[in-house]
Every structure is written in C-alpha cells, then in structure tokens.
Amino acid sequence: MPSTFAGSGETIPPLSSRDEDHAARAGLRDLSELATLVATGRASSKTDLARLTGLSRTTVSKRLDVLIRRGLLSTRLGDSTGGRPAVELGIDPAAGVVAAVDVGAAHCRVGVLDLGVRLLADAYVDFTPDDGPEPVMAGILACLEDLLTGLGRRWSDMRAICIGIPGQVDAETAQPIRPVMLPGWEGVKPQETFSRVCDAPVLVDNDANLMALGEYRARAEPVDQMVFVKVGSGLGCGIISNGTVHRGADGISGELAHVRLRGTDYEDLLCGGCGNSGCLGAVVNGPAIAARLRADGLRAETKWDAIRLAQQGEPRALRAVREAGERIGEVLAAMVCFHNPELIVIGGAFAILQDDLLAGIRSVVYERALAQATRRIRIETTTRNADLGMLGAGCLAVERALSPAGLVTWL
Predict the structure, then answer these.
(1) Which residues touch 8 (CB under 8 Å, ≥6 apart)?
(2) Are 89 and 37 in contact (CB under 8 A)?
(3) How far is CA 165 from CA 130, 174, 178, 205, in A?
(4) Please, what is the Cα angle at 65 between 60 and 66, to 5 degrees?
(5) Domains of the chain from N-terminus onward
(6) Among the listed ranges 31-40, 68-77, 288-297, 302-311, which one has the minimum average pLDDT value?
C-alpha cells in the first residue's frame, strides 16, 4: 500500500517497485537537503535552494510545500527594495528542539537549541570523576527536564540529542572507549538513559570532533580542510575534511595524543590512555605541565595554576608552555604533510596563552613540514573556546534530526 507524508498529499509508492522506491527515497533526500540548507542559514529563498541543490524551481516548490505544511519551515515577507517583497524561508520555532551535552572532567554543560542551532537555554551539572556514569547521566536528564519546562517544551518536542565526551568513541556502537578522564564510562550507553523519556536518537562523539565542527560552522569564511587541536586536561584533535568531520574507519581519526615522541626525556613516561610510553598526550596536558612546574619549585597543583603562572609572566611557566607547543608542533608537522590543511586552530584551556603556545607550534611546523604544505596554512587560536563543544553538538544533533532517517519518522 502506498504511504503518504502526513498532511502533505505527497504519496510514496509501494516499496515493491525498485524504480518507484528509488524515486521516493530521492524525494526524502531532497526534503532533508532543503531543510538542512535553510536550518544552517545557507539558503533563505527558493532561488537559493534551486541554485545550491540543482533542483528545478518546480521540484523545490513541491518539496517546500511538504516541509511548510508539516510545520518544519515557515515563511515571511522580506524587506521590499522597491518591488514585490521576496518570501524568506526559516525554521519554524515550533518545529522542535535538540539537546547538546558537553561533558568535561568535572562538570558538563547541558543546552537546548532550536533547529537553527540557536541556544535557547543552558545550565551546568557538576560532578567528580569518581561519581561514575549513572549519577552523571541522571543529573543530565534532570537538567534537561528543567530546561525544557522553563522553555514551555516537552520531551515530545525533542528531535535529537548529542553528547560529547573527552575520549575515544566507537563509531559503530556510539560507546566510550577507555575514557581516561571519566573512570567507569567504558561501554556506557547513554541511549538507554534517554529512552525512558523520549524516542529521539542519541549521538555520542569525541569532544574534539564536536569542537572542530563548532569552529567550522561558526567561521565566516569557508574552510574545507581544517585541523582543530584541544589542549587542556587532555589533548584532543578533530579533523574537518571537505566540510565534514573525518572520523576514520573506527571513529578514532585524529588521535594525535597517542603519537609517540622521540627523545630520551619521554621514553619512560607512561601514557594512561593506551599503556605505551612517550605518547604526546602524556607529555602535553594540563596535569603534566603542572607537574613539571612543581619539579621546578613552583606551586602548581592544577592546569589552572600553570596557566595563571604563565599569564603572570613566570619564566619557567612560559618556557613550559613554549616547549609544550614545540612538542605539539612535532606531530602537527607530520599531519600537515599528510593531510595538507589550510587552517590549524588551537582550543582548550591553554589556548588563552596564545602567544607562547602558538610560537612553539609554529616554529616547529614551519621548520619541519614540507614548504609547499605550509605555503598557505594559518595557525591560530579559537575566539569561541567556551561555546564550541555546545555548538558542535547542536550542529550534529540538527544534522541527524533533518537527515532522511530523522525526517522519515517525523514527517
């Protein structure tokens, strides 16, 4: 029996016919592409959509009629320039929301965003690494409940949830893999927690991947090839290739923290993440930098102490930050030759020390990488550090909500 998008009058033929099935799926892909272009702000009119998709204006009009009647898109008259005002497209505020959760080592930020990736409300959930996943997930759930209530929303309005964690994530199962900073989170399934209250899909990704996506989407100029490096309590890396996050075959692409450094100073330094010695992530992280400063006679119990000392101009702290940049530069130099990015962005807590950290990174990258690979490359710190994880998680959640798979259960 044929099926119909509710309220649209557009019929999907029976799946028994291969050609008709292909046409129906193509229509669903069109709906997803059009909705995503409007949601991300890349298109606001039929003309924009026809130009960006290559679809005819007639097809665009038919697809938009489905999306508008189903309450996903809305229209309004734009400002007149002397002639007939143009019709502008946008996401209908009542179409639903997504949730973004940015989990750190001692707290997580929880946010509710609309389908245009605009933050509507957020709050923090504090915890200790020893708490384990159950109370943390319960706290996230309760926090989201409060945020939704405050916005006058219900769980039925939730279209997708995305959680970013500091550690590797299995691409197939969406479960954490030996997250050093989150003891007990190995194999945790956040989907089970949220399935108690809603049917929205739950995505789990590495926090550096989400920060890279957030940086990419927030930039005014297009950047197709970008590497994002997070330097904080740990070391993470996200890769943007042709405008999308590159995760590799198993979801662990960009794990530069486990690239081994050469040199006798690091050969016996054990990596808590993989058990090998001399890994970059064991040498360059907040606790390791603080430990080196303590060995130099300074009071530095945490990464924040190390950052404060460097900001105050303490020579030993500045030297430690520059050396950390040089070690990162050693690995990035190889990545530059291999991936050939046009932009490297440094984020995380230590990004505030941009002058000294960037000096160390740039000196090694420009010295060791192939000249042709560094001809156009820029190396800079982010200007949106605090919001990148939330923005990236929101983008990924909206992308899932507006995907063909997301729309088929919605429309």
Answers:
(1) 65, 66, 69, 70, 411
(2) no
(3) 16, 11, 11, 6
(4) 105
(5) 3-93 (1.10.10.10), 95-210+389-410 (3.30.420.40), 220-385 (3.30.420.40)
(6) 68-77
